[in-house]
Amino acid sequence: MTKKVVVAGATGLVGNAVLRHFGSDGGAGVVALSRRKPRDLHGARHVPLDLTDPAQCAAVASELKGTTHLVYAALYEEPNLVAGWRDEKQIAINDRMLRNLMGALEPVSPELKHVALLQGTKAYGVHVRPLTVPAREGRSEMYEQPNFYWAQENFLREQQQAKAWHFSILRPVLIVGLAMGGAMDLIPPIGVYAAMLREQGRPLDFPGGAARVAQAVDVDLLARAIAWSGEASSAQNEAFNVTNGDVFTWENIWPAIADALEMKPGEAVPLSMAKEYPNWIEPWDALRRRHNLLSPSLKEFVGLSFQYADYSMRYGHTESGPPSIVSTVKVNRAGFTEMMDTEDMFRKWFRLAKEARLLP
Questions:
Q1: Is 292 left (phi over 0), alpha (psi -120 to 50) or beta?
Q2: Please, what's the largest Cα pairwise distance for the chain?
Q3: Which terminus of the chain is less hemmed in, N or C, by CB atoms within 10 Å?
């Protein structure tokens, strides 16, 4: 069987990493679905598509013909990012997007083998309550909390009945990589914040709040986990947490981040990036011209991720938070055992951002 991978949400953090993985793999024809053309297709064929429009999905069915693997990394977010996670409109739109795509893809892809669906720690209610530590698949889900995860998962489970294809659900923790204008991508906002401080001759102050023990995952590691789930019989119709394999607090890794950005670590100086960034628009444009950067304006480069940086680094919290830890025993036992040091991960992505002339 010829392998054909369709990646929905190809411009996003996860979608672009999946394109990169299968592009380097060389053994699959890859179709990238997104409204905007990804900055780098890694050999994939781009099909412009708005998943909220069922007519558009039906119109590109011929491009989807023969799909064997679908990686569904598409996501609709409300402009008010964190509040939007509980919004009925956001839930309904994300549910409809998956249904629209499957409605067009499944009839023309009788050899469909696997659907990979992305969730995250909101499955355990991390955005509304302290996690049970460690949060475990099949034991700690917060089904009573409205969430588009459940709408999409229930649809897939119903759709898959008596079919030859299977699905896997991946639940990554804090994902770190590099994408343009993403909603939840920490490298651009931290990199821009650092550049603004460097222009003032200041060290890299920590802008967040009180500590919380947490986990992260390198997006390339996650892409390899997604690819693994498409082939492993142990991953069929299962959900898996995916992390780097270690834990961290921002305070403990901040010196490594500062070093990666060629700065000295500073003091704890709380600052809301989401509120401050309008003051950075003109200085950033001047800095881009001076350093001949390829990165675009702040809105295009960072998107909603200034809000996500505030949330992730706990801006405004003055007391230590409950640990946010998930178990990875299940995915390890199923056969995916790759790990990465979180400090090395941040160093990697800031190095790559500078090499790509996205950061000074």
A1: left
A2: 63
A3: N
Q: How far apart are CA 48 and CA 110, in angstroms?
A: 23
State whether residue 281 is helix, strand or coil: helix
User: 359: closest CA among 155, 198, 211, 240?
Assistant: 198
Q: What is the pLDDT of residue 146?
A: 85
For residue 19, which amino acid is it?
L
- Give pLDDT, residue 356: 94
Beta strands (DSSP E) in the chain are 4-8, 29-34, 45-48, 69-72, 114-118, 166-172, 174-176, 204-206, 216-218, 238-242, 265-268
CA distance 165 to 159: 10
What are the mean pLDDT values of the chain's consecutive 10-residue runs (360 residues total)? 92 94 83 93 95 97 97 79 65 94 97 96 88 94 89 95 96 92 86 96 97 96 98 98 98 97 97 96 96 93 91 93 94 98 98 96
Cα 152 to Cα 139: distance, rounded to the nearest angstrom: 19
Cβ atoms < 10 Å from Cβ of 190: 27
**Number of CB atoms found within 10 A of residue 252's CB:** 13
Q: How far apart are CA 196 and CA 198, in angstroms?
A: 6
Please state, in angstroms and rounded to a whole number, the distance separating the CA atoms of residues 83 and 166.
33
Please give the helix or strand (H or E) that residue 193 lies within, else none: helix 187-199
